[in-house]
Amino acid sequence: MPDSNLQSGENARRMWHSAHSTAQRMTKELVTLMGFVTVLQAHADGFGIGSFGYLGTGFDGSNASKDFFKYDPALDTWSDIGFSGNKRYSAVTFVYQDKAYLVTGINSGATVNDFWVFDPAAGDANWKALNRITNFSSENFDDTYINIVRSNAVGFIVGNKGYISTGENGALYKFTWEYDFATDLWKEKTPFEGPGTTGAVGFTVAGRGFVATGRTGSGQTATVSATKSRDIPSSFLTFSSIDLKISGLSLRNCFEFSRPWPRRSPL
What we know:
single chain, mainly beta, 2 domains, 4-stranded antiparallel β-sheet, about 35% strand, globular
């Protein structure tokens, strides 16, 4: 008798390969259709607002990029929207109230400190600079901004606040920061209590933030399989370890974020 779990797993893998092939096709079409795009970008960032998708920044193997494009799925067309910030790759984006926020990243081996919000309703001036994420100004609000800059971090939203956590900047990071959209200010939160982690993923479902996968050391790539999840950090303060099932596959040691940040023993 066939193993239903194996069948579910095979179906999920087929779904992933189909989605991956579609993404590759769309990217190749972008290169073909937009005559000024000549190289595929890695470590880029993307987001969706309304009925459009957006893709930008990244790394071509030699240089960081600041190209940014808008995709119209109804017409299957791309258009150049530009980007006002520094070149970068491995940045973080999150969307709040139909505006996209792009922060962190790296360029030529150095982290970047500019922070931008994209408002598609603002016409040609759709990128707006926000406060930098280092101690840049002559005011005192950013005096404590000493470890926000990084690359390969995760970002997500809970309620009316944005969050970035993990990543790397010379070392693997645990530092976690909360962004207030109303005031354009950052506040440091209790850091990740497990090993520093980079290259993880963060997402929000029904007002709840989740972080999963990532790398905790050289060569230690975390997996999301049901049989090999031990490399995923197992102690995130105020993150509850859960088993999240997606298309029959068990995503173990996915961590759920909850506010406020009460102290608790490592999971």
